[in-house]
Amino acid sequence: MHIVVCVKQVPDTTDVRIDPETNTLMREGVASIVNPFDTFAVEEALRVREKVGGTVTALSMGPPQADAALRETLAMGVDKAVLLSDRAFAGSDTWATSYTLAMAVRKMDGVDLVICGKQASDGDTAQVGPGLATHLGLPQITYVRKIEAVDAQSITAERLLETGYEVIASPLPCVLTVVKEINEPRLPSLKGKLAARKAEIPTWNAADLDADPARIGLDGSPTKVVKIFTPPPREGGEILTGEPDQIAARLVAKLKDTVLSAAS
Amino acid sequence: MPEPPIKVITQNCVGCGLCVKACPFDAIALNDEKIAVIDLDKCTLCGACLEACKFDAIEMKAREAGADAALDGYCDVWVFAEQTGGHIESVTYELLGEGRKLADALGMNLCAVLLGSGVTDTAAALTERGADTVYVVDRPELEYFQDERYAAVLIELVKRHKPNILLSGATTIGRSLVSRVAVTLNTGLTADCTGLAIDPESRNLLQTRPAFGGNIMATIITPHTRPQMATVRHKVMQEAEVQSGRTGNVSIEAVAASLLEARTRRVRYVPEQESTVNIAEADIIVAGGRGLQKPEHFALLRELAETIGAGIGASRAAVDANWIAYSHQVGQTGKTVCPKLYIACGISGQIQHLAGMSSADVIVAINKDPEAPIFKVATYGIVGDLFQVVPHLTQAFKQALGK
């Protein structure tokens, strides 16, 4: 079985701070990491491979330095990695990104299963996984919290809903997006890290993908960002002090109306 | 070498560095001559520097304009009416509330799309809340949400009636569905909007959403294609009020059987056992974190939650310790919630947690550590022991609410 796992390099948001004076994002020394949701996708791809055999290819689109994210997946045990990098890809929204990833999946041989994280921690759209499935003309199972069964022809998985979960069966090939609950990603082994350092990661550009120039990057993106701003900080709150029963009484006086209006 | 898509106009640049600070991707630096230089390998053309520059010293090429005249045929504001078992989800009413404002600003009709089985009578609930027309596809194959079928039918209706705007809830179903629709229709989709407005000049939909875990906000447009599509965060927009007796058109739409084919199949559905309140929909959430110390201590929060009709949330620390199911996790790797009241008990308030709840109307934080970051977003902060404060709070609410 050939499994492709899509990963994105993102800024580590634990480090993201707002400069209180200029009210802008402070990025100095902000590390780049593999999107946390994608680490669950990588782990799940490795587990499927362990169960049914085959190959796992990690795929990422990004600037040349996104190579580091792919090396992390190699260290975890992914067999191969491919980087999609071209200045022509800059400015891609989720439409163009999913198109570009789809062109890369098409270029690979006999892909049976594509696994993505449910969303990236910087954009938070959750649109690229389903978009990729659509560009490839494949069925999808989104928000997967467990793979119940998988063989060469089909997959059965639990999709997390707001009100519970549903079990969905799909023929392969198919695209999955996974949530955190699905597994505990393994740590890279020392051997894996050494192999990852030496691994050759091919870079495919727009021409390699035979991509339509009108469908990639800025020109291929139907949406356009017109403004970026920092949300106004929350107004300073009030600290309540005193004995617990007094605090509770004062808080209830303040909140009673909110609770009653919510209940209506 | 083709013209770069973004460039610094060196004669205008004064080297103030505002663009350097504004760039979320660390792609701009000042060179030795104090002129901004953009690293095109890092730049994503997000446009943050254009906003920041006060000297018109950065220029970004516009997307090739297409045949925009073709957009004129697209009218009406559409809302995808999410329903489960014939029950309209409340996010739909929020979309109708917001959709009405947009439709009025554009002088267009507000329409809803209702897909399901045995749902035709339910259309009245949508006209009562402001829909001028409800497009209904009532087929047994649409009994519950299935990605391919719902997408195929929605795409067909859009092609048939050409809406200008199409809104959906940013729910599991909404996000899974409209991503497929937007890609197939070659149009733009903006995720998880918290603000929508019409630009009076261009009449484009201004779609505002948080990014980077809520640290920055972005306003996005879909200038050259229609419909303009967006998913909208639950609980942010005001629900449309019921106008008793209000009626509208109910248009029963026939669709070809081929659109109702699907490769995936639902094997079974298992409702959540733990809590009856879905936290994404809850108006009040009582959430617990590491400060609870033990899984049994969630019982304290459950008692308070039952008293005030709240759902139970949790921090990542509590979920990772297996104290409570993942479906309760609030924050970047869990759910984003926007309740009227959020009571955080023993949650320190890591930035990933704040990303998931800081847009709540009222936030109460109870924590022993006065330095905990949760107090920075709290409307009311209590520096104290939750094991003392929470039972008193439950008791006081019981009295106040006559329970």
Tell me what you see in this structure.
The complex is a heterodimer of chains A (264) and B (403). By secondary structure, chain A is of the alpha/beta class. Chain A contains 7 helices and 15 strands. Chain A has helices spanning 36-52, 67-76, 94-107, 128-136, 190-198, 206-209, 244-263, and strands at residues 2-6, 9-11, 17-18, 25-26, 32-34, 55-61, 80-84, 113-117, 140-150, 154-161, 164-171, 174-178, 203-204, 224-229, 238-240. In chain A, helix 2 (67-76) crosses helix 5 and helix 3 crosses helix 4. Chain B is 25% helix and 25% strand. In chain B, helix 5 (147-161) crosses helix 6 and helix 7 runs parallel beside helix 11. The mean pLDDT of chain B is 92. Strand 14 of chain A pairs antiparallel with strand 14 (216-221) of chain B.
Overall residue-averaged pLDDT value of chain B:
92
The CATH architecture of chain A can be given as: 3-Layer(aba) Sandwich
Task: From the 3D structure, determine the CATH topology of chain A.
Answer: Rossmann fold
Oligomer: heterodimer
Helix percentage range of chain A: 25-40%
**SS element count, helices of chain A:** 7
- The CATH superfamily of the largest domain in chain B turns out to be HUPs
* Pair of chains with the largest interface and how many residues each contributes: A-B, 100 and 117 residues
Using DSSP, what is the number of strands of chain A? 15
Number of helices, counting only DSSP H or I runs of 4 residues or more of chain B: 11
CATH class of chain A: Alpha Beta
Provide the number of structural domains of chain A: 1
Termini Cα gap of chain A? 54 Å
Radius of gyration of chain B: 24 Å
Largest beta sheet of chain B, briefly? 7 strands, parallel
Rg from Cα of chain A? 22 Å
* CATH architectural name of the largest domain in chain B: 3-Layer(aba) Sandwich
First-residue to last-residue Cα separation of chain B = 74 Å
Q: Average pLDDT across residues of chain A?
A: 92
